[in-house]
Structure formats: structure tokens, C-alpha cells
Model the fold of this input.
Amino acid sequence: MISDRKAAIFDFDGTLAESMYVWSKVDKDFLTERNIPVTEEYTDKMRGMFFETAAAYTKNTYGLNESVEEIMQVWLDMAHDEYANNVRFKPGAAEYLRQLKNRGYLLGMATSNNPYLLMPCLANNGLEGIFDCICYTSEVGFNKSNPAIYLYTAEKLGVRPENCTVYEDIIEGIESAAGAGMSTVAVYDSMNHKYLDRIKSAADKFIKSYYELLDE
Done:
């Protein structure tokens, strides 16, 4: 059933969580162990990919003997301890989520991450159960250059796209969500600094900190 309630749809890595360092470390450690240099081209290609596609791209690009499933498991094992114990939310993010919840907003998450990493991180940050739904790009088969994940999350929440605000740190997500008729808030993350001008231009609002949004 579609309602007229307002919804907020959040990306996770780089938007809510200070976690992008984990994937930079995983990329570097994984490729270095195989005597492969980490290039900017590789890092850019990996942006916004869902997990299986990224593993397949890595396997095919470097001719690795490991299967896609084996590569994914290695990545998950390398990242799990950080997510479960060390990854923290951006300053003000938890407070802002609770503020929206208290004001009657539906909360959704649209992420390229994996529940094996995501759920322990939410629990460790005291936010387990705050989201009305969590959706993964692997469920829709498209990365964030396509608005499918945002539309799917809106559908799961039972809210029209025009009643949703998407919070993202990557330009691909901001542009595709806007193209789907959703309002957008760009959240600064240093990993995306080189795209800053484009991000500011594409988003309806740009913030460096969630404290800018508290009690608006």
C-alpha cells in the first residue's frame, strides 16, 4: 500500500558510516598480496558496484585463479572485524536518524554493502532496528548509477518517490536518485573530494556534517 508519509533513504558507507577506509584497506591488502598495484582506475571502477559485480570485475581484470565466490569471501573476512568493532557513524548521524524517526519519517537504507558486515556495525553503534527496511543493490541487480535500488527501497517503504529524500555521498547515487524524482542530500566524504563540485551541483542540499540538519 502506497502512503503519503515522508521517507528518508540513506546510503551506508561514506554517508552514515566512516567506513570507506575499510574498503581502501581491503583493496590495497587484497591486491598487494597478489603483487598487483592499486590504481586510481580500479578504485573508480569499483565505485557503487554491488559486491558480486565488483568481485567478478576484479577476477576478470587481473585474471585471478580464485572464483568470484572465493574473492567475495576473502573481502568479507578482511572487512568483518573492522565493521563489527571499529567502524563508527559520522558525527551527528545517529542523532539525526533518531530525530527523523521521532518526527514520523520512515527510514530506509539503500546500500551496496552486505548484511554480514552491516548488521554487526548497526548493533555496535546502538542503531539495530532503527531502519524500517534495508535494501541491497544485489537484490535489484544494478549499481547506483541506476535508480533501481532507490525505487525498490521506496516501494518497500510504501512511499512514492517524490516523498523520499535520498542521502548519498557518491555522485552516481545522487544523480540517479534525482533522476527518479527524489530529493537529494549530498553528505561530504573525503574519499569523494575530487567530485565535490559535481556533487554540490547535482544535489538539492550539501552538508559537511549532520549537525547542520539537527533541529531544522
In short: The radius of gyration is 17 Å. The first strand starts at residue 7 and ends at 10. The domain at 7-19+88-212 is CATH 3.40.50.1000 (Rossmann fold).
